[in-house]
Amino acid sequence: MAEQYPGCPYPLGALVEPDGVNFSIYSRSADRLELLLYDDVDAAAPSRVISLDPRRHRTYHYWHVFVPDLGPGQLYAYRAYGPADPAQGLRFDPTKVLLDPYGRAIATPSNYRRSEACRPGPNDRHALKSVVADVSTYDWEGDTHLRRPFAETVIYEMHVGGFTKHPSSGLDHEKRGTYAGLIEKIPYLQDLGITAVELLPVFQFDWQDAPAGLTNYWGYSPVSFFAPHCRYSSCGDPLASLDEFRDMVKALHKAGIEVILDVVYNHTAEGGEGGPTLSFRGLENSAYYIMEADGSSYANFAGTGNTLNANQSIVRRLILDSLHYWVNDMHVDGFRFDLASILSRDEAGQPVPNPPVLWDIESDPALAGTKLIAEAWDAAGLYQVGHFIGDSWKEWNGQFRDDVRAFVRGDEKMVRRLADRLLGSPDLYRDDGREAEQSINFVTSHDGFTLQDLVSYSTKHNEGNREDSRDGSDYNLSSNYGVEGPTDDPSIEAMRKRQIKNFLAIDLLSLGAPMILMGDEVRRTQYGNNNAYCQDNEVSWFDWSNLETHADIHRFVKELIRLRFIRGSFTREHHLSLEELTQQAGIKLHGVSLESPDFRDDSHSLALSASSLPGDVLMHVALNAYRDRLDFELPELPDWATSGWCRVVDTALESPNDITLPPRAPRVGEFTYQVNGRSVVVLIATALPGS
Predict the structure, then answer these.
(1) How many whole angstroms separate alpha carbon 1 and alpha carbon 573?
(2) Per the CB 3.0–4.6 Å rule, which of 103, 345, 500, 653 could disulfide with 658?
(3) Residue 691: what pLDDT?
(4) Is there a domain that residue 509 lies in?
(5) Are residues 590 and 555 in the same domain?
(6) Percent of the chain with pLDDT over 90
(7) What is the pTM assigned to this prediction?
């Protein structure tokens, strides 16, 4: 048996060196640690146990050891010995196998059981194991970050597994639901026109953290902040999954598509008091988690049982190290921070004006140019949309979602609010001198109804989640337009289709950075389930047959994205603040009469006009959420606009006339345009006829 050496406390994790591996892990309160080495992931006991002597293998609060003759692929874990005193926040359990918080890969036993980490006794055979990995040997072939400005970004929120898992994907069985499967579908993403994918969590998560008999599908249940989820690998090998993830990133970059990860630095899969001991809880419970005043129970600002103690120094370092790893070693372009407002809470759970971890991320030179997107709220009611800290952060604009839904549905008192949403939400962002793309505009996301369900269901239908439909939001601002769920009624179907196009047009043409949900472009349904986190089945998967069934909506989205990039000449001066942009583009608001917007409570119509910054394109947009058609006056054109007004979008028309881009867009010869009830119309005028 090879001798082990004291090793070094830095870096944390398992570092591969020419003649062995250095292991380092943090635990302040442990009396003793053991490094466990396994020959097989299903082994009932480690093949070798290395006891770490605190006199020889501990520096400050870091336990470390160098083990010769080890290399990539070695399975390992830890046991931690210390006081089991929940009243003091100490929950050591030396019978439990603990993952390395800095482990780069994770192996899954064939009979993994989350429940075994909850009950007394050893759980080696059923426990996840860390895997030694050397990430320095991958050939990136010159790949670099794309650094696309937000003003040129169209985000597609998607699930790695659900994108290709459906049999209709046409992929070989072993590639369905994998990183490799996503690579196969990159031509589809290119053709659609999106510029960035925002992937639901790909950090290794506990898929068994769900009601009995169901699966945690979304992945908001992390067990690691470094290892990619190995169940998304086409071969299942932990080290191969590292390469397959990087192959995916490299392929997306070659296609001009950025990679944004949805990251969960607000809680872990270990849950509350009765949850499993997987890693953090068994190493230094009260450092990693925010505890209640009694010291024994967990604060629950995430709604999942625990809350990561993000502003504690060790956890801050963990988060920064994780972000550095995904940017530098995995070439990720950006992050969307789930429940980001939790990161503004201190170690007692109180919101603070200058949270250290957020300023660390904001000012970190290694993250300069990285896309940072905040979901600026948490599950305990802290809502920071419009005033999230820092200059680099963009925000999921929940106000945009709610106000656009309400306006399109026909709610009263919404016209003034809609005007703000169309113009980049100046009521939220103008005072800070922010650019228009401060707002990430979306109507739907993974959390809630799909676009198809938004116009098909008046209430949620979450019975399949086995929680008696207590889960999921009741505030959906949806409508079924006469029938709950699917219908053969042609008038209802026509209305639903029109409303879908209205939502898409507003989302993709408003100032701000648009995000669309996977499958909305082909009317994907979840059958009324607005919280499908545990539905790893056809409820959630992308059904590729819809690409033919709903080819008209798919075409409409493709052409809208093309139109957005034509419209991009209105916003391409990325350094302009929202206020400067509004002034230089000459944006004006109208009602059915020019320069007379109707902001009365019972108004349902709005129009706006703008000029491109070079002054060679004019655009006029008319929105009518009223049930009847309205005649909108059109602005007089300058002499140079020789094309006249040309209709590029009218959502009341059937495909392909609903969207026709220049130079084929038909000319409008009148001084008014009749906008049908519940419709959006876009007109363009240019300097060249038919251009």
Answers:
(1) 65
(2) 653
(3) 46
(4) yes
(5) no
(6) 91
(7) 0.97
